[in-house]
């Protein structure tokens, strides 16, 4: 493909940005939970552009689309997201001057709306009590009405989403644990984190146990869990990967937010707490091992949750 000067320029800007994506620290959990013979580590995924794990897939989706010509200079990136992916697109979009349009359920938290506006994203509100599924439908419709205007990023169906984790997160974890990881634990949203990281880890060492998490029904609808709440199975999900699927008690997870703040000095989000609850369940069930999970974001965007806890 012959690249225009504008596309080349975009690719150069993306390559400069790439050093602010991924390469997150691996934090040892030692006081919020401890058991002789077992170690738990968490990737601090908020230490990237846009403040969450979603920097990785958002960046790769954009980079792959620019490379393949699907995202042309002058077009706007379009997707549905109730949270972190939208913020990641908006931050990266601002950094490389690509306009970003997000279909967002109107009941998304004020913090999220403010962050998106701060990064200059264009927000299309979907219905007041709408789900992420409905926001996806609206994004698809908008794309089919104006295919020339938009690049539809489709995080739930875009292979670049899981590939981001396959090419970055998994290798980082393997290197940071010096190959000693025995278990990988992660919650499912679009499923990109679990699917991509797991696929690569399995190639690096087929013995690694892969555990996916779902929150129980009790707290669905509460801010902080919405990303895990899609009625549909994402297109990129592969049910054959997990060795185990665990349900997480969301009340237990909420207790962990407090414990981790006061014993580890980290203010983690509800989904990070759910991942830690999963890692602890696994730790309780084994005698020896190195368990790795991810903390997708910190608690700064969850004012309601923090107020109810502290
Ligand atoms: N936790 C948070 C806070 C998230 O924003 C997301 C993704 N939307 C997830 C967990 C789940 O990650 P994934 O989409 O890769 O399954």
From TrEMBL:
A GO molecular function annotation here is:
cysteine synthase activity
Q: Sorted alphabetically, which Pfam families does this protein's record hold? A: PALP
Gene3D superfamilies found in the cross-reference section: 3.40.50.1100
Swiss-Prot/TrEMBL cofactor(s): pyridoxal 5'-phosphate
EC category name: transferase
Q: Where is the Tryptophan synthase beta chain-like PALP domain?
A: 18-297
| EC assignment | 2.5.1.47
Q: Which UniProt keywords apply?
A: Pyridoxal phosphate, Transferase
* The protein, known as: Cysteine synthase
> Per UniProt, what is the name of the gene that codes for the protein in this document?
cysM
